[in-house]
Prior knowledge:
Layout: E1 3-8, H1 20-33, E2 37-44, H2 47-53, E3 57-62, E4 70-77, E5 80-86, H3 88-91, H4 109-124, E6 135-139, H5 140-143, H6 145-152, E7 159-164, E8 172-173, E9 194-195, E10 198-200, H7 201-208, E11 211-214, H8 217-222, H9 233-238, E12 243-245, H10 275-286, E13 295-302, H11 308-320, E14 324-331, H12 333-345, E15 350-354, H13 358-367, E16 370-373, H14 383-390, E17 393-397, H15 400-405, H16 411-416, E18 422-424, H17 429-443, H18 446-458, H19 464-479
Helix pairs in contact: 4-6, 6-7, 10-13, 11-12, 11-17, 14-18
Bound molecules: adenosine-5'-diphosphate-glucose (ADQ).
Amino acid sequence: MSLSLLSVASEVFPLIKTGGLADVAGALPLALAEHDIAVRTLMPGYPDVMRQIGSGDALCRFDDLFGGPAVVIGTTLGGLDLLVLDAPHLYDRSGGPYVTAGGFDHPDNWARFAALSKAGAAIAQGAIPGFLPDIVQAHDWQAALTPVYLAVSNRPRPKTVVTVHNLAFQGSYPSSIFASLGLPDTAWSIEGVEYYGNVGYLKGGLHAADLVTTVSPTYADEILTPAGGMGLDGLLRGRGDRLVGIVNGIDTSVWDPQTDPAIACHYSSRALKARTHNKRALEGEFGLRREDGPILAVVSRLTWQKGLDLVAEACDAIVARGARVVVVGSGESAIEGQFLAAHARNPDRVGVRIGYDETLSHRVQAGADAILIPSRFEPCGLTQLYGLRYGCIPFVSKVGGLADTVIDANHAAASAGVATGVIFGPPTGPALMAGVDRALRLYADPKGWRSMQVSAMNADVSWRASARIYADLFRDLTRE
Ligand SMILES: Nc1ncnc2c1ncn2[C@@H]1O[C@H](COP(=O)(O)OP(=O)(O)O[C@H]2O[C@H](CO)[C@@H](O)[C@H](O)[C@H]2O)[C@@H](O)[C@H]1O
């Protein structure tokens, strides 16, 4: 049976990306197509997005969507069937999707993303002639009011799913905005959007959705606990078997070391020697001294969640052990400063690029020996999956999706030849250094390291298995 699904997301690769949400929102539709699920994706018409789509078909209009007119433009790009919400009063401005050019949240984010959800709900109920989806999948807090708007409507509606990519971001706003959301008074309740006296977008969506998914089984367990639930564990426990964790995949055609246009030299698990050229190129690009030791890399938002303060603090110790460090990232200014200071102390052993650079991230995965991901929590994580695919050994903390996707090189796994990385825990400075020491011992055995790289590169990190799980869940949902 073929199904039709409306996906609602605030960022979608390759049109606009600030993090992993975009990768998933851009790749999952292509994987679901293999299971006879046709996905249309609704996203905001930010300036970058409008530039890329050119002209499309105006499929429906809203005369007044949170203070101005809006048009939904239909177009296709890179295999994606897109519905772009062109609402200049909300999205036509400088800065990023969520923040101003100065780095502050857009002051009307509450309206910008309530509008996305409201348009999503209208489309789900037939605003575009000839399109009535069977299911709506709302990604993260920015889209989470979609199921809320649908739940309060008394017209027929599709089944609804909220997918949580990161419970830390909840979209919480003062109660004063409630009157502007266009929800009935009954929605100001514990079953609605009320959350400790504020309006909680994600909270409302988690309550209203027919099904809640998150991006790994371990994270699905962690968020049921007070330590991992970010205040929502009670609600989530109440959802029982309506909460399911499914590991992310990656787009293996975008991330393919045999064809990647961003890297100096193509290679495969059968032709790993060629990878060395990428390591040399990376040394050149970062001005690193050419040495025998490994290059340990970071490609990440530089935030507390990602535990990168731990790496910044450990830089000198890592370098003293004969390794070099490469960092590509931006985020908290304190962590950026720590890395820049580590570079100043070790200019030819610690390379740092503050900023966001998609193609550089490919060259790092192709040239570094290991990718460091010491997250304090990690719903799934994609960089370790890119690392596996590129033979850049993941060095990860034992949390969330990191624990679900990497096989630690312990004695049993190493002797069975199935290890794909190094897992350490808990995410603290001493445990990190103990893990680094273990990784360096493994690296000192070239044959063992190569065997780990081959296992990593042969791991199935595609969407294949997970898309099937989503497809089965979606089909079950429509049968209820
Ligand atoms: N400076 C930089 N330059 C270039 N590229 C950079 C970069 N900084 C980050 N990236 C890229 O951004 C993406 C980050 O994705 P992650 O899944 O690792 O984390 P994120 O916290 O954004 O996503 C959230 O959603 C995803 C998707 O579900 C979950 O996997 C994750 O656990 C959750 O926190 C990767 O593609 C990475 O390569």
